[in-house]
Amino acid sequence: DTAVSQTPKYLVTQMGNDKSIKCEQNLGHDTMYWYKQDSKKFLKIMFSYNNKELIINETVPNRFSPKSPDKAHLNLHINSLELGDSAVYFCASSQDHRVGYNEQFFGPGTRLTVL
Amino acid sequence: GDSVTQMEGPVTLSEEAFLTINCTYTATGYPSLFWYVQYPGEGLQLLLKATKADDKGSNKGFEATYRKETTSFHLEKGSVQVSDSAVYFCALSTNSGYSTLTFGKGTMLLVSP
Hints:
Strand content of chain B: over 45%
Largest interface: A-B, 26 and 24 residues
Oligomer: heterodimer
Radius of gyration of chain A: 13 Å
Number of strands of chain B: 12
Distance between the termini of chain B: 41 Å
Order of helices and strands of chain A: EEEEEEEEEEE
Largest sheet of chain B: 6 strands, mixed
């Protein structure tokens, strides 16, 4: 059973399009995250949700809008895609955000290529 | 703010060689420290962790000790295998407020037979 899953695994699209990436976790965790990994492998937190509520929002363009319909899902919608959005996007989850419970489990990643 | 500094890669070793990947951190308070591994084409997997000073994390022959005095968490393995080839990320998690992971830039390890 896959603990944290993401779809699609690969996404190729044109500049200006709108796209979504979905994430689901079956671990019963309360907290979910989105990270962006650039071409140099650098990983940076974008958003974090705890029990469907946004708790962390780093300086991400407002073209990126996360949505959490329930605590097992955290989707990422991106409007007006730009070349610089090309990256690998990782979803992660943790039991919750508190000390001792915040070990994070990662999904396999979604490679987004904007042409 | 919090930050993690790792040695630049790639690190190229022969099988059975000794591995050290340096990691130092800057953080307020007493963070938890982690090593994650990313195999080609895959997501990150937790390799080991330590939550307080002098703790040693270990897994699959890898070890790292939380050194508060030198703010370091160096990763070591006595004898690497070809299958250890991957990118290794050092990370910290602050223990206050809403904690997230702050990652280093990753170190690629290439092990040849």
